[in-house]
Design brief:
nine-stranded mixed β-sheet, single chain, three-stranded antiparallel β-sheet, mainly beta, 3 helices, globular
Length: 200
């Protein structure tokens, strides 16, 4: 079994905070990924077939990198809730090749990554009880720390000869109060090393 790195790297760039403060931690573990030659199934395809006898369709094209265990921990004002608007994966293959692939995960593609997000219909982290987006007559308390149980997948990456590349994973969100007002924006990023062993 391959030994996977589990070192947490947390890099945050946050708007409107005093120096030294941060609203949330964001990381991907392990910080390495291998490009898989075959196709795969997205989180949305997997969620939509849960509880059925259907096999999730292979909607991720071949040569895809899989980014597992996205972790978000809310550190801000406990009276506010962090709402993740989108997560973006940007893949860069060497300065000379100028090969860039990117994918933005938002809406249903975003909330499929975490069971509570899918259940309640919103990518909320931390804070006081808020309205259930899917059922406005109910309230729930978002977890202050979440880890995805479905992997981000970025397909159509280069094949051919072996290479090493870097992927940057961004999380973009905002802080919201109990009245539903947006208080501030919040952004964080982390990097992942990506390797392709080459066609055999």
């Amino acid at each position: 079994m391959k030994k996977l790195l589990a070192l947490m790297i947390v890099l945050a760039t946050l708007g409107g905070c005093a120096e030294g403060e941060q609203d949330f931690e964001f990381a991907v573990t392990p910080e390495s990924a291998i490009v898989i030659k075959t196709g795969g199934s997205s989180c949305l395809a997997i969620r939509r077939t849960e509880g059925t006898n259907s096999v999730p369709p292979m909607d991720i094209q071949s040569n895809y990198a899989e980014f597992r265990n996205l972790r978000i921990k809310y550190l801000g004002d406990p009276k506010l809730t962090l709402i993740i608007a989108y997560i973006e994966v940007r893949f860069e293959l060497g300065a000379g090749d100028q090969k860039v692939e990117s994918k933005v995960f938002a809406g249903d593609e975003l909330i499929t990554m975490v069971p509570d997000w899918w259940t309640y219909g919103e990518a909320a982290v931390g804070g006081l009880p808020i309205t259930n987006y899917r059922n406005p007559t109910e309230k729930y308390t978002p977890q202050a720390e979440i880890t995805s149980n479905c992997s981000l997948k970025l397909g159509s990456l280069p094949g051919g000869a072996a290479y090493t590349a870097t992927a940057t994973v961004f999380a973009e969100g905002y802080l919201r109060d109990q009245a539903g007002n947006t208080i501030d924006s919040a952004t964080a990023r982390t990097t992942v090393n990506v390797k392709f062993k080459g066609d055999q």
